[in-house]
Amino acid sequence: MTSSFPHRPTMVVVTGAAGFIGSHLVQGLLDNGLEVVGIDRRTPETDAIARLNLRDVTGHPRFSLFSGDLSFVSLNLLVRDAACVFHLSAIPAVRASWAEFERYVTANVMATQRLLDACVQEGVSKVVYASASSVYGPAEAPSGENDPAQPISPYGITKLAGEQLCLAYAKRPASRLSVTALRYFTVYGPRQRPDMAISRILAAALAGEPFVIFGDGTQRRDFTYVGDVVAATIAAADIEVPATVINVGGGSSISVSDIIAMARTVTGNPVPLTAGAAQAGDVPATAADLSLARVLLGFQPRIDLQTGMTRHAQWLQKLPADLLRTYGPPPTTDQDQSAP
Ligand code: NAD
């Protein structure tokens, strides 16, 4: 997707713009010459992580941020004239979803339905939805898009519901809305959410404080660098298929123990470990079959784990001390080694 610049730039909307992936997507879209309207309930004025995430785009002449909750605000004016709505806002993370299901349903399902209604009413022709590998549940082999979706966490169930709701809107008779749902596999890189494993592991190595490892470290994840996710997400805006689901993964399945070893390599420091129990909803392994992504998006992951983790570690090292504490130890029971 590119802009019609020097005429009025093409406008797109990003929900969850102040989040980890959303803020990288905003940057990628601006780099493509687009005008970007971000929506997020976190604001840089009141939230340190939103401020950090949006630091590089704040004040950009083609970026504006609307601070509000998708569950309450009027969305029609915001999506009117959008060439594409990238729907990334959600409550992520598996573990907390056991205790807070109502919040997850409200943010991940009900808010999605409000957004879809606004898109239909305003004649928006394209929605790209951020789905998740968590919709698959436990899998023996790389998951293909036609494999059964059997999520084993409340979070995964809300992501599957949001994804299928988007597809149902696209498949309605006479619908003019086209939907691409991207199933992201564990995303990492600078600004990764502080509850996620790679952030915690790198911060533990940098600070010399313990990382709580859930289970025996053999859980495998298809870790995906955020820049690759952004490339796939922008490419998804242009595909012609009216309603489809596509995996976006890093291309190899790597254990948490391997990540700990890589953290040592890229920081030069060991990662002190504390044992914790295996967690409910945490699948043993995720791996993406990327065949469809190659065909429909021309997608190929570009950043290998060592390069990606080096960039991630360098970003953490530049954080002011108070924020490094937010990203790093002491480990909390909220940390998420699951497959979001
Ligand atoms: P994030 O928490 O950093 O970003 C999500 C943003 O959405 C936050 O800034 C939050 O304030 C906002 N938000 C949530 N509910 C909202 C609402 N009702 N109204 C307005 N704003 C709201 O999460 P992330 O890791 O960047 O994930 C982005 C998307 O990608 C999510 O949909 C998530 O389910 C999906 N995903 C992420 C991963 C991953 O590894 N990070 C993997 C698979 C899928």
TrEMBL record:
Residues 323-340 are annotated as: Disordered. It comes from the Bacteria. This is UDP-glucose epimerase YtcB. It comes from Winogradskya humida. Gene3D superfamilies: NAD(P)-binding Rossmann-like Domain. Residues 333-340 have a biased composition (Polar residues). The lineage of its organism: Bacteria, Bacillati, Actinomycetota, Actinomycetes, Micromonosporales. Residues 12-249 form the NAD-dependent epimerase/dehydratase domain. Signal peptide: none annotated. Pfam families: Epimerase.
